[in-house]
Fold this protein.
Amino acid sequence: MRRFCILALFAMVFFAACGLSEAQTSALRQEQVVDGITIGLEAADNALLNTNQEFIVTLTDADGTPIEDASVYLDLTMPAMPMGVNRPVAIHTGEGRYRTNTAYTMSGDWEIAVIAEVAGVEHRAVFQRAVTE
Ligand SMILES: [Cu+2]
């Protein structure tokens, strides 16, 4: 009986962990064309408050070729109020993909500005996300 209970406990922890990771990977992918450069952002839809989030930026030029040598960071702000500075730098992981992590520090509507410096010129696209408590 005790052995069964321990197995049941492990199963519950396992499924709880699966549910959590699944919730975090329900990412919404969006794209904007800025100055001929396609800036994509893949980030959690309805992200949880104070929970580490992954953000993946993709950059392609007008020919659809991945841009490999950009400097990329995000600037997370709330349109309704001033918040603390939240500007994570993204690391190039290959094929024009840049990855970073950060957490939302308040529930509500956020704007995620993607700033990509390509050949000395800054390009900026702004995406929206709602954060639930
Ligand atoms: Cu706020």
